[in-house]
Amino acid sequence: MAKMTDEARVKRDLKAFFNEIGAYWFMPATHGYGRSGVPDFVVCKDGHFFGIECKGTPKNKTTILTTP
Matching Gene3D superfamilies, A to Z (predicted)? Predict the structure, then answer.
């Protein structure tokens, strides 16, 4: 079995948390060719929507998006 990455652990724990609080969530399927700006999770809780990007460690930073 392959070793779980830090980011995979974060995603696993977030899924458990979303389920625990009764949030609706999904992970958009980008098949490795995702557009920039597509979050790892789209979550809805109490009528509020959130896009959440996961990183494995604090040194991993999200990329600043610019408009063309």
Answer: 3.40.1350.10
Neighbours of 27 (CB within 10 A): 15
Full-model pTM: 0.78
Distance from C-alpha of 26 to C-alpha of 67, rounded to nearest angstrom: 26
For residue 53 the two structure tokens come to 């990007």
Quote the CA–CA distance of 42 and 25 in Å, as a whole number. 6
Q: Which residue has the tokens 């990455």?
A: 5
* Token pair for 40: 């790892």
Q: Tens place of pLDDT for every residue, the chain, 68 residues? A: 678 889 899 999 999 999 999 999 999 987 777 667 788 999 999 999 999 999 888 888 877 776 66
Q: Extract the tokens encoding 50.
A: 């959130």
